[in-house]
Amino acid sequence: MPRNWPATMVTVLPFLLIVAVAAEFSINYPSLEAEVTLKAGGYWHLGGFCFGQDDSNVARLKVQVDWKGSRPLEDASVYLVGFDGREDRWGVASETWNRTTCEDKWQMAVAWDSSTKLGTRGQAFVVKVLQKTGVRDWHFVLLSCGSVEAVELQLKIQAERGALSYFEANTHFDHSSCPVLPTSWWQQASSALGFWVMLLIVVVCSFCMAFFIGCSVRLCGLQEYTTTVDADVVGKPCEILHDENIAEGHPHHLTKEL
């Protein structure tokens, strides 16, 4: 085994952990996708998201549109609308969903200021969701109320921020998709894989740092000891103290002055 393997492990292990965490926490936005052939008076439930409470913009959605028609989509009355999950909004719309026309649904969305005409903002645009109270679902619907080409349209809605959960098309008409929030932080953290990954990183990095410091202290101590021994061995001879009462030059017949 190489003599410098502790230093190598300390250098390589954090890099491997960072790669593992990056793979675990890679950005993967929840999204809704639809592929429909437009027709006059058509409406399609796309699914939706659950959003939490915020003082300003609770969520940010990125909408991408791919229109296959030959005429500009701005000339058609095609809308993306959102219905707040409260009883006086989505509750009202869902009770009469199969009995109201495309225009009726659009009028309800306009009254709640949650209607966007496709094509007027380009092929990609951002929708900001305002919600200051509660935690609830939002249902998103594609409306084609006017004359339009019977051509395929592809739509994708990505929740870049704020989504607690999402649900598919034609589901959760009568009940919420919002998760039941835990009552303690430990319950929420312990159920998340990322929490245990971060805890493992902290423990491993702490062990590696302590091991590296211990090895460094031992190496420094060994070097200091070696230097001290060499200093005692390699050096000038010790001086002999001069005593005036001892005659110099006669090591075997020492005489003293009387």
UniProtKB/TrEMBL annotation:
<keyword id="KW-1133">Transmembrane helix</keyword>
<keyword id="KW-0812">Transmembrane</keyword>
<keyword id="KW-0732">Signal</keyword>
<feature type="transmembrane region" description="Helical">
    <location>
        <begin position="193"/>
        <end position="213"/>
    </location>
</feature>
<feature type="signal peptide">
    <location>
        <begin position="1"/>
        <end position="23"/>
    </location>
</feature>
<protein>
    <submittedName>
        <fullName>Uncharacterized protein</fullName>
    </submittedName>
</protein>
<keyword id="KW-0472">Membrane</keyword>
